[in-house]
Design brief:
about 25% strand; seven-stranded mixed β-sheet; homodimer; Nucleoside Triphosphate Pyrophosphohydrolase; alpha+beta
Chain lengths: ~230, ~230
DNA sequence: TCAAAAGTGTTTAAAGTACACCCATGA
DNA sequence: TCATGGGTGTACTTTAAACACTTTTGA
């Protein structure tokens, strides 16, 4: 049996949650939109294969990668039986090397409006989206989608986009800051307002140490995943 | 690449959380303790393969099965490269057909004291245990380990065993009943006390409908998983 | 000077936690 | 009659949710 990995790569452009797709270069389905994937090599584990594929497409290393349940339907690949293990990748879209777009005919698409995909890739994307909502309701993973320095209002926008809700900014910032993961910097970001918003950065140590802890950031998180 | 599934089968004997293991019948590692596993057949998905393996070993069908992350180290199987996907199975130990014990040289072991296992099976078991704790802290999966009719004190014992804590029975029963998943029967179980404890059964509809909801049953759930 | 986003504080409601007593029964 | 496990109720603490005003500043 062939074994492959496919990467569901999420990014956040400040307004919308985005998905990175490529136009497939070979048969079957050449020219059609697809997730970036690849076969697992003899010396690789699955996570290593996913990291390799991601690096090749985005130029980014050391990325948040989460393995999802395998896709194993016997006829999912029409040519030869292939098991595929999807990985969710959360990247800082600003670090994406845009020259790659040409090499792979890649493109970022709004998560709510992306083209028809080959095989069962649509199902993978929807699974990854549901999983992201589930995970982010309890664990501070969404920081992975932001640049190293970010503002609380940016973070709020991200949560509102991922869950398609609007949240109370006062309760939100209190909750986020009470998690004690952020360090306030002496800089402001004036990109979005005249007053400017304070920039923060993650305290990586605290982030790692507290990652497994459950933080209920979203009101009524139940209703946001199936 | 060969693709296999391995089942981490949990049961509850009323006191301890148990793990079902077999003595491997073939080389390599013949005679040593192992998880029950098998290769994925040409017409099977992974979950189907896991269900088949489980049925063969326990005689039980329609069991709670949850796929865990794949084990993919290139040298995990010394003979030939084999990818294995572990599945957690939660079974009602009373339904286990004991005659099978002889066929497979199977045995139930205390989850805290089980023999040396082949390959990376110990790691699978530990992952499954951690995952069970995580999952059960938020979702009512532990019912799967009990018979169709059970009492609140039995359920309490189960939670206390899984998390190795003691809980307040008053708060526990209030919490459980407020989830509105149980139906009180007109029977008592007198196995554990003179007074007898009321028997309940799951309302399957409500169970399925509310499964995704998050119920914080364990106090300080954070501290119980890594 | 005013529009637009940033930032802060208080009140109320709900959920979680701690804790103590009575009940039913068989030995 | 008493020891054993089963069952319930209440006060208190903590956490979440709702909500309104002041600040800064560039156009």
């Amino acid at each position: 049996m062939l074994v492959a990995v496919d990467c569901i790569i999420f990014g956040f452009d400040g307004t919308h949650l985005k998905l990175l797709l490529i136009q497939r270069a070979f048969q079957p389905e050449a020219g059609n939109w697809s997730l970036m994937g690849g076969f697992v090599q003899p010396d690789e584990t699955l996570p290593k294969a996913a990291a390799r594929v991601l690096k090749k497409l985005t130029g980014i290393a050391d990325v948040y990668l989460e393995e999802l349940s395998a896709f194993s339907h016997p006829e999912r690949d029409p040519i030869e039986r292939t098991l595929s293990v999807p990985f969710t990748a959360l990247v800082d879209i600003q670090q994406y090397e845009t020259q790659i777009t040409d090499d792979y005919h890649a493109g970022w698409f709004d998560i709510n409006k992306y083209p028809k995909l080959i095989f069962d890739h649509r199902e993978m994307v929807e699974k990854a989206k549901a999983r992201l909502r589930y995970k982010a309701a309890f664990h501070p993973v969404l920081f992975e989608l932001l640049p190293a320095k970010f503002t609380i209002p940016q973070l709020l926008n991200l949560y509102e986009e991922v869950y398609d809700i609007s949240m109370d900014k006062r309760n939100f910032s209190r909750k986020i800051l009470s998690m004690d993961l952020l360090e306030k910097l002496n800089e402001k970001d004036k990109g979005n307002s005249k007053k400017g918003a304070w920039l923060y950065r993650l305290n990586k140590k605290k982030y790692k140490a507290n990652f497994h802890k459950v933080a209920s950031i979203i009101p009524n998180p139940d209703i946001h995943y199936s």
